[in-house]
Amino acid sequence: MTITDQQTALGAAQLPQVHGARNPGMALDMDWVLSARANRSAIERRAATLPGRRSVKKDHQAAWMARAISCIDLTTLAGDDTAGRVARLCAKARQPVRADLLEVLGLPDLTVGAVCVYHDMIAPAVKALDGSGIPVAAVSTGFPAGLSPMHLRIAEIEESVKAGAEEIDIVISRRKVLTGDWQGLYDEMKAFRAACGEAHVKAILATGELGTLQNVARASLVCMMAGADFIKTSTGKESVNATLPVSLVMMRAIREYHLRTGVRVGYKPAGGISKAKDAVLYLSLVKEELGDRWLRPDLFRFGASSLLGDIERQLEHHVTGAYSASWRHASA
Ligand SMILES: O=C[C@H](O)COP(=O)(O)O
């Protein structure tokens, strides 16, 4: 399969809708969970073939990069975040690429999917995004390790929703996966989902700490059964974050969940995705594994702090024929 439909790509980038139908969840089905397997060598072989055979050129490339922008959760998760830095990030979220480039691309209203911050930065982000329709996502539940007492993790979600976060990125307890406590993981995720209320919930699996791809497959299923609206690879703070093999496993779990329940759960690779060409690779994988319906911000996001800068650079090159210095795009 090759990517050739520029119009489809540009059309989807203009779609404003970032929130779709929710995943109601289902009872924990242990037979299904324990039947999940992952053949590491086959998955790694398949992932290894992807970079070599993707070739998306010129206008098609620009269309796919625009699509990628519409799916970015523009993120800042640093200890020295300030209201000023978040306001600058939000300005970038509203207008992710220079206005003249957006005009040439025919996408004057292109924005990112969401802005993702720590709890303390929700209020400045909500203020800076007022009227834009761009939701604020907050990382929560003792991010990134998820080791604070359960009642505090629940309270943190509730506080963040109260502060205006429309999306909550929770972290799961890795030890529940590593010890095979699937019921415990299910109960925890269900409690997180309930605390979110109307806010959409993304379950961060921290796949780099789950040991095996089989654990990634099982944890993906359990979180979806417990009502996760999205499953997300990583916090960006593990030593191994989003990878193509892990993405294959998680996307196939999403596909299977959709086949069995009819419910579409979203996918968010996060951590270390900083190049436009990698973003296009991920989009092509989503297209192949899940289909076009997932190539929209209500079902796909990149968690990324520096990807937008490279995409803007590549788009500038596409339109003007020249690259600008990377420092010109420093805020993203
Ligand atoms: O969820 C988003 C990640 O924390 C961003 O990671 P990154 O800084 O490697 O892009």
TrEMBL record:
Record carries keyword S-adenosyl-L-methionine: no
EC number: 4.1.2.4
Enzyme class per UniProt: lyase
Catalytic activity: 2-deoxy-D-ribose 5-phosphate = D-glyceraldehyde 3-phosphate + acetaldehyde
Pfam families named among the record's database cross-references: DeoC (PF01791)
Pathway linked to the protein: Carbohydrate degradation; 2-deoxy-D-ribose 1-phosphate degradation; D-glyceraldehyde 3-phosphate and acetaldehyde from 2-deoxy-alpha-D-ribose 1-phosphate: step 2/2
GO molecular function, one term: deoxyribose-phosphate aldolase activity
Annotated SMART domains: DeoC (SM01133)
GO annotations of cellular component type: cytoplasm
Name recorded for this polypeptide: Deoxyribose-phosphate aldolase
Lineage: Bacteria, Pseudomonadati, Pseudomonadota, Alphaproteobacteria, Rhodobacterales
